[in-house]
Amino acid sequence: MKTDDRELIVVMKRYFAVKAELATLTAELEAERKAAGAQIGVFYDPRQNAEHAADLQRSQRLKGEMMSLMQRAEAWGRAALADDKCDRSEVEAEPEERERTAIDVPPLIDAPKDRTVPDTGLLQPSF
User: Fold this and answer.
1) Which of 74, 79, 91, 108 is paired with 57 by a 20 to 30 Å CA distance?
2) Measuring CA to CA, how many Å separate 94 from each of 33, 34, 80, 90, 101?
3) Is residue 76 within 8 Å of 11, Cβ to Cβ?
4) Where are the domains of the chain?
């Protein structure tokens, strides 16, 4: 396994750990909001809800961390795709190499050469 792949695994493990932590925190905050009978806009505003301000700010930090981790994973994915395209273009740049390694398969005996209907490009049915 490449180092880059290991780094992606570490990033994704952290992403899902943060996601679970955020889900737990969100559930706790929502339960407290409902128990208090507070309006959503008031409860989730740290300036108006000093009692839960630290948890609300932590929630925002966790969301930011999740976004950052996902951006790192997306960057890794884009780099991997670019590498794949580069590898494919190198293969396509050497068609004579493929021709030398290709296996020649003889045509089927008595197979019609062209079964397409003129001017349509559709295959004629064979009964």
Assistant:
1) 74
2) 65, 66, 22, 7, 12
3) yes
4) 3-101
